[in-house]
Design brief:
This protein is an alpha+beta fold and 171 residues long. It has five helices and four strands, in the order βαβααβαβα. Strand 3, helix 4 (124-143) and strand 4 (153-155) form a beta-alpha-beta unit.
């Protein structure tokens, strides 16, 4: 297609999810999301929404549009076998990440920043980093290169605005 709108909205209308997520120890008792921080103790729910206009790169260039990002590849998989619904599998994450980067034809050393899921949970964040490390280790090995320390930043907007749940992908 020539144009597409992709968006999401999260509004918190009821306390029911707060209660359920709190009972499961998912929410930060301090009300602060601290992605990839030693003090991470859970995530914070947030409200918001966004809509992105997507169009082919050649058309955006021809139209003189400001380009804020280029999607070179996409992928989806199952979280892998784990002991709980809230725990992901770093091997499954690594396979997905490495596969998408390979398919997109992107060199691992050309990636300078990763906007991660990074909810700020003491279990989830280390698993996500482990998956990223595995993926990039494989990609660098395949390319016959050695990664440089500090070459790629990792962050999460959730630390600033909370987890927008249904709108997290466009946030």
């Amino acid at each position: 297609c020539d144009l597409a709108l992709a968006g999401g909205v999260n509004l918190i209308w009821s306390p029911n999810h707060f209660v359920a997520f709190s009972k499961n120890g998912m929410l930060s008792p301090q009300g602060e999301s601290k992605a990839f921080d030693q003090g991470a103790d859970g995530y914070v729910r947030g409200e918001g929404g966004a809509v992105l206009l997507l169009k082919p790169l050649a058309r955006a260039l021809a139209d003189g549009d400001p380009i804020h990002g280029v999607i070179r590849g996409i992928g989806v998989n199952h979280g892998g076998r784990t002991n709980s619904l809230t725990v992901t599998n770093p091997q499954a994450q690594a396979e997905l990440i490495a596969g998408v980067i390979r398919e997109a034809g992107v060199a691992p050393d050309s990636i300078s920043y990763i906007e991660a899921h990074g909810t700020g949970t003491p279990l989830g964040d280390p698993i996500e980093i482990a998956g990223l490390k595995q993926a990039f280790s494989r990609l660098y090995a395949e390319a016959g290169r050695t990664p440089l320390a500090g070459q790629c930043g990792v962050g999460s907007v959730k630390t600033n605005i909370g987890h927008l749940e249904g709108a997290a992908g466009v946030a």
